[in-house]
Design brief:
The complex is a heterodimer of chains A (535) and B (105). Chain A is globular and about 75 Å long. Chain A has helices at 33-39, 47-52, 71-88, 98-107, 113-117, 119-123, 132-147, 152-159, 166-175, 184-188, 195-210, 218-228, 236-254, 275-280, 283-294, 314-317, 319-336, 347-360, 372-380, 412-421, 452-460, 462-471, 489-502, 504-508, 516-521; strands at 269-272, 299-300, 340-343, 369-371, 396-398, 425-426, 482-485, 510-513. In chain A, strand 3, helix 18 (347-360) and strand 4 (369-371) form a beta-alpha-beta unit. By secondary structure, chain A is mainly alpha-helical. The two termini of chain A are 45 Å apart. Chain B has 105 residues and is mainly alpha-helical. Chain B has a single domain (2-95), classed as Orthogonal Bundle (Arc Repressor Mutant, subunit A), CATH 1.10.10. Chain B contains five helices and two strands; from the N terminus they run ββααααα. In chain B, strands 1-2 form a two-stranded antiparallel sheet. The longest helix of chain B has 17 residues, at 44-60. Chain B starts with a strand and ends in a 10-residue tail after the last helix. The relative contact order of chain B is 0.18. The chains are: A mainly alpha (535), B mainly alpha (105). Chains A and B meet through helix 12, helix 13, helix 14 and helix 23 of A and helix 3 of B.
Chain lengths: 535, 105
């Protein structure tokens, strides 16, 4: 039996790991994946790497935080951390999140209902470190002891002890990147406490006050998007060139005239893709173009930077960075004079634009925004396009992106489409607002430093992989090609990595893709199948 | 930052072995990077891919779409995997001295 972790140990023995995760701890995968996993080795952090960077949590390193130069730097960072904790709890510094955060601070009954709702905790073999309450409780104790007025001994007596030092803050930073912010914990809480919000608030405090953020999200994410126009590095010139290429390529493949409109003034619809789709999954933007043109929609893409990229990674780690991108997206929509903005198949874009931006944007900057799911549903059932569902006669299941389904409550439109167009559609268990995260949420899917991919595939992605296998248990053989509909760029990246790691195509015939591809695949006007299984 | 030695040249590399100073890249560096990818000798086909990626990157500041790479060089995706076992982005681009891909790709 594993030793239970004490919260009061969190700030102690900073040169050692607080806990470890071993393969044997994890609940087994069904055959043949148990064997495949046993044969694969998790990457070990080298001694040279440990000398340079902080590695004191669980043996995995997502962030490569440099070690402090001296005690002076340690103290400076701890002071900034304390100032940041205080700011989180003041109206003028954190008006957007203060109310739910205060509720979360005061009302946790420590019943652990959230722990059994958390796929990371459960699939880690129930390692205490990953309980949603563990991270939150560290924060509560820190606030109670070091921020609230009154003697420290009294706070310790009432709420439990915690040290505050470099070890505490460096471990807590890394621990903020062991939660995908799927908010299943918040959904299950009988008190309305949101422990995923604690992750979010701590991440943003580390970024805004200490300048600590994952390189993939900040430097090569938001900063690149602001400098070049897209987190992918595509400038306006490149994205247009790429779309031209996609149009030409799919005109050849389909025999249709595929033409993506750019910068059409006063269009009814501005569609914003996650630019990762254009780079890595061009069949997705191609399918949107084919479908929207066939339905006669008056639509456009925007070429103004950064509005050809719906990414807004600030959602995951920094309110200021989120606002910078959100304002630019809104300004492009306003300049084009479009009636509404449609979110492409990207979960965090939905949340950043449709809910968070609603609190920032006022007046004529707040142009109506809509998810692509109800928009696509309207097109599919408009009668304007002929479909032949027998073209999709293969097993299909749906992965619900947390940010769209649980966090925005969009459940039925995508299912109505799939039930109509996919004769062998089947649900995962559970699904809808009770879905499990792909394991790559909150930016994890693009974080691939050191041995972090081992963790996000084997631990945080484990439940999703099992769910997918279960959904297709009636057709386990690889000869039967199966389609996981995962309408979100981040989820697709994570599912691709899980499938590649376990060679799931070879052993189970698993393929993944978006929603709009399935719609276009069923169009009568297409002579050849749109979905290519061999690629 | 870790470093990487190719002949007389020392280059900074990131956690995944992508070089950080694309200006220092040359044929010798490419050959040394290829070895880290399990490619002992760069054949004519390898060079065709590497040179295409290099030229595209110098012109556009980013890697090409994989479909574009396939179409312009005439290689099928599985042939690229045969040449560079880690694939076009993690293998071929790394050898061509491009930075690690960014964004949701």
């Amino acid at each position: 039996m594993k030793k239970s972790l004490k919260i009061s140990d969190f700030g102690k023995n900073g040169d050692r790991l607080l806990t470890t995760v071993k393969k044997d701890d994890l609940p087994p995968l069904p055959p043949p994946y148990d064997k495949i996993e046993a044969e694969k080795k998790w990457v070990e952090i080298s001694d040279e790497k440990k000398r340079r960077t902080t590695c004191n949590l669980d043996g995995f390193v997502a962030l490569s935080l440099p070690r402090p130069k001296d005690e002076g730097e340690e103290k400076q960072m701890v002071d900034k951390f304390v100032a940041g904790l205080e700011k989180l709890l003041t109206q003028e510094n954190n008006w957007g999140f203060l109310q739910p955060l205060t509720l979360t601070l005061e009302y946790c009954a420590k019943c652990q209902t959230c722990s059994s709702a958390c796929p990371v905790y459960e699939e880690s073999g129930k390692n205490d470190l990953y309980r949603p309450t563990y991270r939150a409780e560290i924060w509560r104790r820190l606030v109670n002891k070091y921020i609230k007025k009154g003697p420290k001994w009294l706070a310790t007596l009432k709420h439990g002890d915690i040290d505050l030092n470099w070890t505490t803050i460096s471990r807590l930073y890394e621990l903020c990147y062991r939660c995908t912010m799927c908010r299943r914990c918040a959904q299950s809480c009988p008190m309305g406490v949101d422990n995923a919000l604690v992750t979010h608030e701590l991440r943003k405090m580390f970024s805004q006050e200490l300048g600590w953020a994952p390189k993939e999200l900040h430097e090569s994410g938001t900063m690149k998007q602001l400098q070049v126009g897209s987190s992918t590095g595509m400038s306006q010139l490149v994205v247009k060139d790429n779309l031209d290429f996609i149009d030409e390529d799919y005109s050849e493949i389909t025999g249709l005239e595929v033409k993506t409109p750019w910068d059409k003034k006063d269009a009814d619809v501005l569609l914003i893709h996650n630019a990762g789709e254009i780079m890595a999954w061009p069949e997705n933007p191609a399918a949107f173009t084919i479908l929207l043109n066939a339905a006669g929609v008056n639509w456009t893409l925007a070429s103004e930077e950064p509005s050809y990229d719906g990414v807004n990674y600030g959602l995951f780690y920094d309110d200021f960075q989120l606002a910078r991108i959100a304002l630019k997206h809104a300004a492009s929509a306003k300049r084009l004079g479009v009636k509404k903005v449609i979110m492409g198949e990207c979960g965090h874009q939905h949340k950043a634009m449709m809910t968070i931006s609603d609190r920032i944007l006022i007046g004529d900057m707040n142009i109506p925004k809509e998810s692509c799911f109800p928009f696509l549903e309207e097109i599919v059932f408009s009668g304007k396009i002929k479909f032949d569902p027998s073209k999709n006669n293969f097993p299909v299941t749906l992965h619900d992106p947390c940010n769209i389904t649980r966090n925005l409550g969009i459940v039925k439109p995508q299912r109505r489409i799939l039930r109509y167009l996919c004769p062998q559609f089947r649900e995962m268990t559970p699904h809808g607002v009770d879905n499990y995260c792909c394991g790559g949420g909150s930016g994890f899917a693009i974080m691939s430093g050191n041995n972090f991919p081992d963790w996000r595939i084997s631990v945080s992605g484990r439940r999703k992989f099992k769910q997918i296998l279960d959904a297709f248990s009636d057709h386990p053989a690889p000869e039967v090609k199966k389609y996981v509909c995962a309408p979100c760029s981040n989820c697709k990246g994570q599912i691709r990595d899980i499938f590649a790691y376990y060679e799931a195509d070879k052993h189970s015939g698993l393929k993944y893709g978006g929603l709009v591809e399935l719609i276009v695949n069923a169009m009568v006007d297409l002579k050849e199948p749109f979905i290519k299984w061999e690629e | 930052m870790a470093s990487f030695q190719a002949g007389n040249i020392t280059l900074e590399i990131d956690e995944d072995g992508f070089i950080q100073e694309p200006d220092k890249w040359n044929d010798e560096v490419a050959a040394a990077l290829a070895k880290t990818e399990g490619v002992e000798t760069l054949t004519e086909d390898h060079w065709k891919l590497v040179n295409y990626l290099r030229d595209y990157y110098l012109q556009f500041g980013v890697a090409p779409m994989i479909r574009k790479l396939c179409k312009d060089t005439g290689f099928k995706l599985n042939q690229i995997y045969e040449l560079f076992p880690s694939g076009p982005a993690k293998g071929a681009c790394k050898v061509a001295g491009l930075p690690k891909p960014t964004g949701c790709v």
